[in-house]
Every structure is written in C-alpha cells, then in structure tokens.
Amino acid sequence: MRNLRFDIITIFPGMFESPFNESILNRARQQGLLDIRLHNLRDYSLNKHKKVDDYPFGGGVGLVMNVEPISRAIDEVKKEVPKARTILMSPSGKPFDQKKAWELSREENIILVCGRYEGVDERVRLHCVDEEISIGDYVMSGGEIPAMAVVETVSRLIPGVLGDENSVVEESFSEPLLEYPQYTRPRDFNGYKVPEVLISGNHKKIQEWQKQQALKKTAEVRPDLLKKLEHWEQEKAPLKELNIG
Ligand code: SAH
For the whole model, what pTM was predicted? Predict the structure, then answer.
C-alpha cells in the first residue's frame, strides 16, 4: 500500500482542520493512505514576538515573509523526510494542472509552504524549495487554500483513495477533454428533459454521444485544450461532424 505524506508550513494551521477532517480526505487519512502534518511557521521564528515578516527592501507596500523561519522550518521537517519534494505556493509559480497532480501523486513526501502578506523573500524560491506552483491566474490572500486545493487534487489520485478507480480516469482533463454532461433523476424537470440517448440502453450510442458532447463542450469553453489533444487526428472526424473543428 502506497502512502503519501504532506507537511504543510503555514502561519494558520487552524485553517486546515475542517477540510482535512471531512469526506474523502478524512477517510484516506483513516485508511493510512494519506498523512498530513501541519507546522506553525511562527514556531520557527527566533523573534520574541514570533514575527515572520518585515518591510521590503527598496520600499513598496505591505510586508514580506522572512527567509529564515521558512528555511528553518523546512530543515526541521526534512530531518524526518529528507527526500521530500518542497513546493512554494505562489501566484507566479508554474500552473498546477492535472498532469502536475499525477506527477505529485507518485511522490512519497511533499512539503508545501504557504505564503501570506505580499509574498515571500525571493531567496526562499532560489535556495529553499524545489519549485513554485500556482493554482491559477488570480491572487489569493494566502497559500493555505491553494495548498488545500493541491492536497485534495493529488490525494484522490493515490490508488485506493477513491473507491472506484474508473472514476478517476473518466473525468475532465484525463484526456485532456472536459467531461461530458451528466444527468440523474428526474427524467423531466419542469419540462427540461434528459437527452433521449441516455435512456436508450444502447451503450455504443451512449458512448458516442458522451464523446461528442465532451468535444463540443471543450471546443466551446476551452479551445486551448483541444490544441493539446494528443490523438488529434483520431478526434478530427467527430469535430468535423459538429462543424466546430
Ligand atoms: N504580491 C504577490 C501576491 C502575494 S499573495 C504577487 O503579486 O505575486 C500571498 C500568498 O498567497 C503568496 O505568497 C502565495 O503563497 C499565496 N497565493 C496567492 N495566490 C496564489 C495562487 N494563485 N496560487 C498559489 N498561491 C497563491
């Protein structure tokens, strides 16, 4: 049984309690597939007020997180997990996507460093971590929620965390196509009906419909993903039929 351990360095460890104690993440932890350790960055400050930030050199608004407490915290954690892949959460990092999530799911130990304020001293990026990743092109107030997003996305890829392995494969971005639309009861909601084909019982037709819908949705919403499609030649035919290729 494979197990992934996350060590998270943050000034707000309390933020993580509820998300990690519910649902799939909680079950994965109970089953020993996932191990999450929280480290309060302030414990690594040598300042008597437990300060972990200071004014930026060169001026500018806001405060910047000091390199020393972060470096000390990482060193301490690495005494237990020396080979841990160390990642800084940052809006200027490389984008986090499903491919990156698969890559991280194969690690044994990951350290996530959460920034706050105006960000962290550049020397953290240069000398203390292996890489920085961003969860999207927008700026949040801290790295805690981005770190939760990474933990949740990566954890569900660890074998055994989701009951049915198929549900991981069929979802959006595994192809990389967006997922086809899904329906459940009732068949008629205020006159809005479930597409006939889904009730037809014809599995081949259903699969074709799902594939077409996935392509259509991707072409409409994320044309950039279609460009990435590896099996482009094979996919061209249904696209042509839909007049969106
Ligand atoms: N001044 C910085 C923003 C700092 S936001 C800038 O313009 O780039 C404060 C912290 O929130 C960051 O250090 C980072 O840890 C976290 N954060 C904010 N947005 C994020 C995102 N999209 N992805 C990952 N981390 C993010």
Answer: 0.91
